[in-house]
Amino acid sequence: MIQRIQTIWLLLAAICIAATFKLPFYIGTNALNVASSPLMASDSFFITILTSAVVFTALINIFLFKTRIVQIRLSIIGIFEEIILIFLYYREVKTFTAGTYTLWSVLHILTLLFLFLAARAINKDDNLIRESNRLR
Hints:
elongated, 3 strands, Butyryl-CoA Dehydrogenase, subunit A, domain 3, mainly alpha, single chain
């Protein structure tokens, strides 16, 4: 399990997305004219639920190493969850009157990258197993 590279990619994705609970995505003046108001994962109910879902999807996916097809599907589901999460953040940013994205907003792009790399590595493993079965 730990010798396969997709385990590392999935673990890095889970760490990046879990870090967004404590690190702000956007800092600015919100609609209530509160200056320096940070937008974090715990500020919105839907963002909190979806962030938790992405973390659990990545962590559960690590332990499903015996079923590669399920791993690929969960990785793709995690990618779609992360895309929806980025959309929800973007929608929340529109409620601010002024502000800037923080450096920590890059964590979401890194999570997408890590989930994609994990899905690609799982697919390579699956193709390798199919080839070795074909040669028998």
